[in-house]
Amino acid sequence: MHVARLVLHDFRSYPEAELDLEPGPTSFIGANGQGKTNLVEAIDYVSRLDSHRVSGDAPLVRVGAEQAVVRVEVRRADRTALLEVEITPGRANRARVNGSPLPRTRDVVGVLRTVMFSPDDLALVKGDPSDRRHFLDALLTLRTPRLGGVKADYDRVLKQRNALLKSARGRQGSVDLSTLDIWDDKLATLGGELVAQRLALLADLSPLLASAYLDVAADAPTDRRDVRATYKPSVDLPADATGDPTVVRVALLDGIERRRRDELERGISLIGPHRDEAILEIGELPAKGYASHGESWSLALALRLASFSLLRDEGDDPVLILDDVFAELDQGRREQLAALVGDAEQVLVTAAVADDVPKSLLGRRFRVEGGQVLRD
What we know:
Layout (H helix, E strand, L loop, with lengths): L1 E10 L2 E7 L3 E6 L6 H13 L19 E9 L2 E9 L6 E4 L2 E2 L12 E4 L5 H4 L2 H15 L2 H23 L11 H37 L10 E6 L12 H14 L1 H7 L10 E6 L2 E2 L6 H21 L5 E5 L7 H11 L4 E6 L7 H4 L1 E6 L2 E4 L1
Parallel strand pairs: 3-13, 3-14, 8-12, 12-13
Antiparallel strand pairs: 1-2, 1-4, 4-5, 5-6, 6-7, 9-10, 10-11, 14-15
Helix pairs in contact: 3-4, 4-5, 5-6, 5-8
């Protein structure tokens, strides 16, 4: 799988942009603020309907414009698909495949699969639990697109349930809580599937993560080469919970019942996948708070490489995007990374300076200056 053509209209800094791409490595070289990351962000957005830089869609639309349009032509073997996403802040976005409107915008997710590594990925190791939950859910959706709908439905139920709990805070005797049991059941059912899928994902990802970390941190001390990713749910789960949403649902309902008084007093849902955590460890210690800067970088990169391997094992190569990462690596790590990803079907690289990119990944070069994308 590779992106053959990218067309932008009022996306970020680009009133208009069109460029043809090829399999293999392609590099976008330009000083900071010239728009090179905007190009790969657009491709990644069509893959996941999510930006690696911002949480909302408004910044994706060029200042002064009402709507942005991203078109991506994707080729897989002898088949071609034209994906189009219209981004309209304050209104529902729309998507088309080969000119045909999709019933739901999220149905476009997974047609193109990308794996992006950027400096922001340090948050996967050093950031809040929400950063790691987002990583898991984004990978789940790429792996099994229907789970994007499960996550969206869970978020909607959680919002409704929290609104009811908030309205009842300190007023239990004067607020109708008859519908709370219904929201409990919906939250546990959707949350049960989400947690079970996260558990199954981590079980599949963990050996790939351990292998990838050994590749990127081969020079690490012996006692700092083992990495683990474990799931810490908001309730106690039996050992057979992995992959079984029914088992998780029962545990969530039990946890909700036990925390009912606390939830009513605080006016917020305290049980569910939105309260869970993925714990990353290097050696015998948690990575967060104990890993060095270099170890954190290596672990974040290993998470992305493991994701790439997982998606590759289950289908076509995803498009690999390396956004401004080589400036953070020494020469040895740069060459090591280049060797690890060199056989990917398509690698898109951004960098401020061409000399930072290993020669094997420079490939077809574009120069990005003043919002113009020029073939170098």
